[in-house]
Amino acid sequence: MNPIIRLVYRNLTISINPGFIIWQILFPLIYIFVAGFAYTSLIENVPFGNKDLSYPAFLASGMIGFNIMNSTLISGIIIWNDRRNGMFEQIMSGPYTRSDYILSNIVTIGIIGLVSAALIAAVGYPVFFESVEFSIITIPLLIFASVVGAILFGSIASIISTRLRSSEGFNVIINTVFLFFAFASTAFYPAQGAPQPLAIAFYINPLSYLVDIVRAGIFGQMTDFVIMEMIFLIVLASALFVIATKLLTKLDF
Amino acid sequence: MLCIQTSNLTKKYGSSLAVDKIDLEIKSGQVFGFLGPNGAGKSTVIKLLTTLMSPTEGHLTVLGIDAAKSPLEIRKKIGVVLQQPSYEMSLSVENALDKYGMMWDVDKKTRKKRTEELLTSFGLQDIRKKKNDDLSIGQRRRVQVAREFMHDMELLFLDEPTVGLDPSARRELLDFLKKQVQKTGMTIFYTTHVLSEAEYLCDNIAIINKGKILAVDSPNELKNRFGHEKTIKINLTKTSSSLSDLLSDIPDCKVELEPEPIITINSSNSEVVLMNILKILNQNNITINDLSAIPTNLEEIFLKVVSDSNEPDN
Ligand SMILES: Nc1ncnc2c1ncn2[C@@H]1O[C@H](COP(=O)(O)OP(=O)(O)OP(=O)(O)O)[C@@H](O)[C@H]1O
Ligand SMILES: [Mg+2]
């Protein structure tokens, strides 16, 4: 078996447990149904491209983007635990290279992101089926979002986990950063109508771009702006990936 | 065949020197002991030899492979149990062994067989379903050592593997290691602070202090080389208060009266000293109850070699 596949298999076995599944799948679903319908009376239809989306549909599609980001937390946690539990050194003194290790983490979160995005899309389908517009770009755009999102946010999680020494610090920082990305993005609320500073924050936030791409795929609203967002994400993800790899390579024993 | 060869091997952490120009040649098919006080540089040498770290200077070849050119090729053929604990939190003991074998690309059938064998050899059958968090420190260490035998290897590094093990688990491990070397012809690079362990297990021993190798030889040769001073004990039947005065002119001997009268000789000329003492005892009608020569053990040699190297002129 290929070394990366072996490490991915190992990552999945050690990180998938009931707590994780609840956090990763159940929480977003409950949120879509409870918050989606509770806020419908507050938030009218949201314009997207040349469509008007109901708020539950808007939220469910945003949740897919959010979940892609959230599943990358797992990579930070794996790196962090491997360092703390001595497994990083053990793996690095075995039949693996550092790039095997990094790539296996990216693949792991790609898989988790893709599976949970697909599950949420399937279960959330009833809430956005009215506006769905499947086309040949739907699946490729969702895969693009999962892969680029995994690399981008996975690199951020990995950077944080290589820079920190105490475990409290790790949890606090990684959750704060991701919470900021989540709430200052268009995943949960539309930018229209938000106060000016928040609206600006929405648009310097890579999660907003990711969510736009997911929505473009699901609701068939491919525009030049979305293409620009895709290019921006590729550039940002590559840069962060290079930094994350450098830091992990420099990590001393 | 040479299993490990280093020349001028040097490692600095910042400006502090942890390994200082080490030249080592270790033959295959033996247990090689690596002894030295805390901070001597043992673990650092292991990290260099296992390619976890690159040397600041010098050159090393492991199993005939140049570590600077193909570290991965070396790592595929070795096993390592590092000094610090390493474990997967969420896995049970049996699962941890199995998954570790999987990470070494061992096929499923072999993994199953080896897991059973190792659970038995390492006394882990009763706790096979327990998770790492629920194990005692010694049990964790046993799992960590056991799992390394899930895969085949030509060379195994063990950095203080017996720390935390009870005496019988210790002895079982040493015997298990001896058997593995006989059976497979593998080489084991072994560090420990328990010198009786090294004496029991190792074919050759290196003593290291402050990053420098002080001596390399078989335990017996080390004793011959450094164990010049022989210790002889003479137990007497009854105390004579004048004993100390009688022997006051004889060098290298010590008299104790309590709890029982004993004369201890410790000298590089023990036999001559003994003759002189016997003459005096005889002249004074003091009878001997028991007379014994204490063989030099590795511990004394270790202490001597290390303390000599700590003298300021070294
Ligand atoms: N990561 C590190 N950074 C800086 N100095 C280090 C580091 N690791 C070890 N050292 C220093 O290098 C020297 C050798 O350490 P090493 O761990 O190799 O000793 P050792 O012989 O294994 O000791 P012990 O018997 O306590 O395990 C020590 O002086 C130690 O302080
Ligand atoms: Mg050490």
| Rg over C-alpha atoms of chain A, rounded to the nearest angstrom | 18 Å
Averaged pLDDT of chain B: 91
**Biggest beta sheet attributes of chain B:** 6 strands, mixed
Give the neighbour order of strands across the main sheet of chain A. Answer: 1-2
What would your notes on this structure say?
- The complex is a heterodimer of chains A (253) and B (314).
- Chain A has 253 residues and is mainly α.
- Helices cover 75% and strands 2% of the residues of chain A.
- Chain A has a two-stranded antiparallel sheet.
- In chain A, α1 crosses α6 (98-128) and α10 (206-219) crosses α11 (224-250).
- The mean pLDDT of chain A is 86.
- Chain B is of the alpha/beta class.
- Chain B has two domains: 2-225, Rossmann fold (3-Layer(aba) Sandwich); 228-295, 2-Layer Sandwich (Alpha-Beta Plaits), CATH 3.30.70.100.
- In chain B, 36% of the residues lie in helices and 28% in strands.
- Chain B has a six-stranded mixed sheet, with helices on both faces.
- In chain B, α8 (219-226) crosses α11 (298-310).
- The longest helix of chain B has 18 residues, at 167-184.
- Chain B is elongated and about 80 Å long.
- The model of chain B has no long low-confidence stretch (mean pLDDT 91).
- Bound molecules: adenosine-5'-triphosphate (ATP) and magnesium ion (MG).
- Magnesium ion (MG) is lined by residues 42-43, 83, 159 of chain B.
- Residues 13, 16, 18, 36, 38-44, 83 of chain B line the site of adenosine-5'-triphosphate (ATP).
